[in-house]
Amino acid sequence: MPLIQLTDVEKIYPLGNQQVVALSEFSLSIDKGEFTVLAGPSGSGKTTVLNLIGGIDQPTRGRIEIEGRDVGRRSTRALADFRLRHIGFIFQSYNLIPVLTAAENAEFTLMLQGMTKPARRARIRDLFADLGIGGLENRKPRDLSGGQQQRVAVARAMASHPAVILADEPTANLDSQTAEGLLDLMHRLNRQHHTTFIFSSHDPLVISRARRIVRLRDGRLEDDRVQQP
Amino acid sequence: MDILTLAWKNLWRNRRRSFITLTALSLSLMLMQGFHNLAVGSYARMIDSGVRAGSGHIALYRGDYNRSRDEALTYAAADLPKQLSAVTEVEHVLPRVYLPGLAQSSRESRGILLTGIAPADEAAVNPFLRQLEAGSLLNSSEGRGALLGSRLASELKLSVGNKLVITVQNRRGDLISELFRIRGIVHTGLRDVDGSLVMVGLKKAASMGGFPGEIHELALILNRAANVSEVMPKLTALMRHSAVHAVAWDVAMPNLSNSIKLDYASQKVIFAIMLLIVTIGIVNTMLMSVMERVREFGIILAVGASPGRLFQMILAEGLVMGILSVVTGSLLGSLLTWYLVDHGIDLRRIMPQSIEFGGVIFDPVLRAIWDLPWMAKISLYLLGLALAATIYPAIKAARLAPAEAMRHV
Hints:
The complex is a heterodimer of chains A (229) and B (409).
Chain A: E1 4-15, E2 18-30, E3 35-39, H1 46-53, E4 61-66, E5 69-70, H2 76-86, E6 87-90, H3 102-106, H4 108-112, H5 117-130, H6 146-158, E7 164-168, H7 176-193, E8 196-201, H8 204-209, E9 212-217, E10 220-226
Parallel strand pairs in A: 3-8, 3-9, 6-7, 7-8
Antiparallel strand pairs in A: 1-2, 1-4, 4-5, 9-10
Helix pairs in contact in A: 6-7
Chain B: H1 3-11, H2 15-53, E1 58-62, H3 65-68, E2 75-76, H4 80-85, E3 90-104, E4 109-117, H5 119-123, E5 132-135, E6 145-149, H6 150-155, E7 163-169, E8 175-186, H7 191-196, E9 197-201, H8 202-209, E10 214-215, E11 217-222, H9 228-238, E12 244-248, H10 249-252, H11 254-292, H12 294-302, H13 307-342, E13 345-346, E14 355-357, E15 360-362, E16 365-366, H14 372-398, H15 402-407
Parallel strand pairs in B: 4-9, 6-8
Antiparallel strand pairs in B: 1-11, 1-12, 2-10, 3-4, 3-7, 3-11, 5-8, 6-9, 7-8, 13-16, 14-15
């Protein structure tokens, strides 16, 4: 059974009096431990696919299953709990909470899970060391570089050991060297923890580093292939 | 980091805005606590002065004397004062006789209210007797000495040592005249009282009225810690076989009671307006804070916070703001009260003449007293208000759809 299964998914957004079809007849299955990139131009539906898999948006039609459970048929509260325990998000513009320190940002999902402060701190300390940002725990996001902020965002996504990490254009705001470093890191985490990574990107660097490339155009699947390392 | 730490950090996201809101809340609480305590202090002094000169905290009357003022409604005091003095809360028992009459000097005559008092008991309590303008106090319950109100003495063109004739109607309907000598003149500041007050010995007044050994009123002065509503049942039980019944000061002196109620009602309206303005301020602050963070809330929801959890987070910000305001406001309110208890507000410069309020003289030096239960109550009320004002912004945040919120710029 695949980890993620999208079957004939359609997503239509209302825009004034019109309706915009963001995704149409889209089917995709992803197995545990994959390192997949959703590639395609802006407006092709990459972010929509990530949002639907992550349960932060609902499909207009079709079925989305994760670990055999239908994500689209859950209550708001059940979806929030599902995201908290199974999904990690990494965003293009880091989206760290500015009033919190790097460690507090990273442990945010652990706090939501009700983990005690000492346990949270212990896990974050190890994670920060592993991600090469040890010593930056007490810095506010404004005192960190773009690369460091994105690593804190990765730490936040990884903190609760999710089954899937969804990264929406994670390297878009990074220079190529930092982006390369981040991709190395994600590859390592993928290998070490068997965490499934799904990216959306139109960055050739990211696409070249993915093991599977799913191309979208105008909300439809254009191409789906596995590339050799 | 827990939900309250997060709320604390979020509160200081926009320092200036939060500071202004906190200042408004704290100052409102300070003013409400300070001015409530000042009002309660002023009312307490007025009540104290009113009950000591008037009917006491509790008065004992026969029938409906307190309404009808029918001179026939007398009763034998007998050993009642002794029994009442045994009640722990009762500090003083003052028997009194009231007779309307006529005072005549060699040149003028005026209508008066002849008040028979027990001189020794009354001297320790009655504030009128502390306003002695000339002469000395009464020294006998049976003698022919009299104390006159200052305006009456002036209108009758009398001074200390002069004689006057007082005429009253006794119980049988006969006119009884007696000669008195003025021992002292009192200036109460109350125009009506100064124009009609004649105090003589209790026994002398009762004998003129034709009811020796009987009185119209027993005024009870309670000790400071006592509460009228707690003492009333005791007295009612004590009087259950008697024609005499107990009346609380606010019933016996409706003018004073109603004036205080009216004054405090207007103050409550001002407090309500202040609280309304404060509430609008909190709603505005919280709503702006929420609207600025729509995208961030989208992220928080996306990473796994439930709408209920987000609602709690925003509510916690209101709670933190409320607690901070209550602590600061109560501290400032206590400082203001302390000043108003210790120094008060002296109105004598702007109010040189004494003012009558509800039948008593309004003390121009206003002093507060500590009303701690009310201070706690209004603090909790403000805290509740801060929370209530946060509910709408919190609901607004909790209803955000994460994907849509994350697209918000």
